[in-house]
């Protein structure tokens, strides 16, 4: 339509946003006929850097980019937002325990939630990227009960994409030929990238991946540690690939997708994961933000301990986060 959609991005002067904003400004999410407004939120010390980002956005000269708002006031940033991408979070410093990270981020996401519920569009769709992403989404939902919990998801698409790309490389096919990869659970080291049903060009991929034993000893840890490997090599965490995963996630979720993808959504009890956490499941996206968790996949004796471990971690995070918020 001609009416611009308003997209809010928090942490807009950070490194993921530097890769994400040009994609949003040039129609890589909603296509080349959908104008967008960008509302950019940062904390006061980053406002000068944000101003530089805004200059560069203007200099893209994108015909789709209408209003740009740069602010450190969440009420201004979230006003009338149709889509909110929460990238901003307190960063994990060396030696920081999970509890310390949670105690910094719980207040940020609680505060943002209450403001969003008041000023965002009534049909707002929210993607949480900032870590701990799954638990931040849970906290956000608890603090904004007027926003349907299905409208709040967290990003595990980067882990999913990493897994699809690995299958494609091992099987010598393009990623368009890869299906059946599922990324279960938390966006953390306990994530379970599941290759059991992965196919490349319609054929099972597990043999090319080295068989079940090699998958357990090498392939799963390779994906679980991929983020750390990027940090080690680049001296900075994944940004380009995270930005693309955000676009992929939002495109599947808001526009629709023929393929099954992985998304952290509120658990409905499927696969024995109790309600109360945002768990990455295989989902079928029906368009316009509608999705359903794919049920009925067989969970093998191999997969079960992985799924239980990542669920246990999410419930432990949930307890800690709720204790902090009280
Ligand atoms: P950066 O540190 O480069 O950028 C984060 C930005 O957020 C900073 O500019 C900071 O000033 C801003 N910020 C902090 N608190 C804020 C607040 N209360 N309101 C608004 N802005 C605030 O980090 P970057 O590499 O861009 O990563 C951002 C987040 O994504 C991190 O939490 C990171 O751990 C997480 N990631 C999550 C991924 C996922 O798959 N879910 C993958 C990529 C990434 O690691």
TrEMBL record:
Tell me the superkingdom of the source. Answer: Eukaryota
The record's InterPro entries line, in alphabetical order, gives:
L-lactate/malate_DH (IPR001557), Lactate/malate_DH_C (IPR022383), Lactate/malate_DH_N (IPR001236), Lactate_DH/Glyco_Ohase_4_C (IPR015955), Malate_DH_AS (IPR001252), Malate_DH_type2 (IPR010945), NAD(P)-bd_dom_sf (IPR036291)
Q: Name one Pfam family in it.
A: Ldh_1_N
Q: Name one GO biological process term.
A: malate metabolic process
For the keyword ATP-binding, the answer is no
Indicate which residues the UniProt annotation says bind substrate. Answer: 92, 98, 131, 162
- Top-level EC class: oxidoreductase
Domain Lactate/malate dehydrogenase N-terminal, by residue range, is 7-152
The catalytic site is made up of 187
State the EC number(s): 1.1.1.37
Keyword Magnesium assigned: no
Its catalytic activity? (S)-malate + NAD(+) = oxaloacetate + NADH + H(+)
Domain called Lactate/malate dehydrogenase C-terminal: residue spans: 156-322
- Keywords, A to Z? NAD, Oxidoreductase, Tricarboxylic acid cycle
Residues given in the record as NAD(+) binding sites = 105, 129-131
Q: Which GO terms describe its molecular function?
A: L-malate dehydrogenase (NAD+) activity
Instruction: Tell me its family.
Output: Belongs to the LDH/MDH superfamily. MDH type 2 family.
| Name of the protein described by the UniProt record | Malate dehydrogenase
Task: Report the source organism.
Answer: Heterosiphonia pulchra
Q: Which gene encodes it?
A: malate dehydrogenase
């Amino acid at each position: 339509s001609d009416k611009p959609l308003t997209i809010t991005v928090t942490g807009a002067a950070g490194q993921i946003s530097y890769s994400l904003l040009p994609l949003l400004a040039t129609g890589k999410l909603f296509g080349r006929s959908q104008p967008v407004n960008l509302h950019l939120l940062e904390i006061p010390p980053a406002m000068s850097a944000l101003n530089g980002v805004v200059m560069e956005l203007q200099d893209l000269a994108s015909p789709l980019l209408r209003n740009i708002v740069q602010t450190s006031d969440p009420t201004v940033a979230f006003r009338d937002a149709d889509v909110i991408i929460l990238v901003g979070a307190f960063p994990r410093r060396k030696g920081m325990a999970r509890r310390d990270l949670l105690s910094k981020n719980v207040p940020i996401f609680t505060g943002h939630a209450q403001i969003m519920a008041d000023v965002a569009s009534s049909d707002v769709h929210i993607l949480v990227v900032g870590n701990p992403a799954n638990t931040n989404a849970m906290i956000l939902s608890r603090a904004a009960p007027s926003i349907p919990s299905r409208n709040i998801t967290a990003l595990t698409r980067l882990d999913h994409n990493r897994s699809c790309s690995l299958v494609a490389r091992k099987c010598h096919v393009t990623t368009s030929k890869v299906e059946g990869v599922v990324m279960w659970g938390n966006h953390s080291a306990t994530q379970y990238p599941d290759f059991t049903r992965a196919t490349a060009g319609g054929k099972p991929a597990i043999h090319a991946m080295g068989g079940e034993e090699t998958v357990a000893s090498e392939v799963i840890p390779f994906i679980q540690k991929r983020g750390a490997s990027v940090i080690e090599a680049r001296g900075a965490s994944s940004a380009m690939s995270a930005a693309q995963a955000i676009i992929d996630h939002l495109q599947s979720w808001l526009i629709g997708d023929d393929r099954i993808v992985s998304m952290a959504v509120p658990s409905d009890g499927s696969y024995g994961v109790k309600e109360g956490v945002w768990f990455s499941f295989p989902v079928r996206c029906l368009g316009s933000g509608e999705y359903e968790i794919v049920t009925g996949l067989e969970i093998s004796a191999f997969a079960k301990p992985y799924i239980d471990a990542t669920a246990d971690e999410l419930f432990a995070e949930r307890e800690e986060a709720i204790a902090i918020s009280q």
